[in-house]
Specification:
mainly alpha; two-stranded antiparallel ribbon; 11 helices; disordered C terminus
């Protein structure tokens, strides 16, 4: 509990983060598993009010989630399949120096808290270029970021209407209506959310090998890469730029998501139907 109290002091509200994002050097997020809440002393009656999926956890639902064979929980790294996994702390640091400072501070805190130990840690760093968000395969990211009703943000063209806050934050109306079946007492759910944490191994080298194997020229390789994802790596959608990349289009939030598969490419002539799977409805991506 000493650890929870100390780390909780470093967690900010969404409003606080918005106000300080341009100046602060670090942000901290904390999440607890159902077993973690039990370890903290939450009573059984309250624990029973959580959804069955949360109580079971991903290990128990592995087959349903497709985590079989090579992806079976017994092969998960970082002790993520352990029932002793009670909490996860996610640190976002602006630079390497702040990252290391926070790590040392947390290590010192752990040393002072009896019964608390780190099962595993994962260090990640952004990859260049740093002037826009992108994944490790080189594709521009955050193109279909949903907007939550009431935040004051305006959806970009083609992104759909703002979603009800209850789709992401517990205690508020969602797209189906008023909140129902929330964990009790209310303090366990109001302004909370569910999060799925999964470590994925991305085979960037194999992806590049595949492109070289099936594309004779760099231009052909980039077209294959675009058809696999439905977009050029710049972010330009194939629906609007089917023949060649258009980086200016990809960088323009007023245009790069302003299209409709059903109306503009119903048969998948511009975008292979399989690559549509990557473009989920924002509601489907909520955790």
């Amino acid at each position: 509990r000493a650890w929870v109290g100390s780390i909780g002091e470093k967690v900010q509200s969404a409003a606080e983060i918005r106000a300080s994002v341009d100046n602060d050097k670090r942000w901290v997020t904390v999440a607890f598993t159902w077993n973690g809440l039990r370890a903290l002393g939450v009573d059984e009656a309250s624990l029973a009010t959580f959804p069955e999926e949360f109580k079971q956890g991903m290990v128990a639902r592995a087959e349903m989630l497709g985590d079989t064979g090579e992806n079976d929980p017994k092969n998960w790294v970082g002790d993520l399949a352990s029932p002793d996994l009670h909490a996860i702390v996610i640190l976002f640091a602006r630079d390497a120096a702040e990252h290391r400072r926070c790590q040392l501070e947390h290590e010192n805190l752990i040393a002072q808290c009896e019964g608390v130990e780190v099962l595993s840690a994962l260090d990640l760093q952004a990859t260049p270029p740093f002037d826009y968000a992108h994944d490790h395969f080189g594709y521009r990211d955050r193109l279909s970021q949903p907007v939550i009703e009431g935040t004051g943000e305006v959806p970009t063209p083609g992104s759909g209407a703002p979603l009800k806050p209850g789709e992401f934050i517990l205690g508020y109306p969602d797209e189906e209506g008023p909140p129902v079946n929330l964990p009790q007492p209310a303090i366990l759910s109001r302004n909370g959310s569910y999060m799925a944490y999964r470590r994925l191994e991305e085979h960037v080298g194999k992806f590049r090998d595949f492109l070289r194997e099936h594309g004779k020229t760099p231009e052909e390789q980039e077209l294959i890469a675009a058809k696999l994802m439905g977009r050029w790596r710049s972010g330009a959608p194939l629906v609007l730029a089917p023949e060649k990349d258009d980086p200016a289009l990809g960088a323009d939030p007023e245009r790069n998501n302003n299209f409709n598969y059903k109306e503009m490419d119903p048969h998948g002539y511009a975008v292979p139907l399989g690559s549509h799977i990557r473009r989920l409805n924002p509601r489907d991506t909520a955790v």
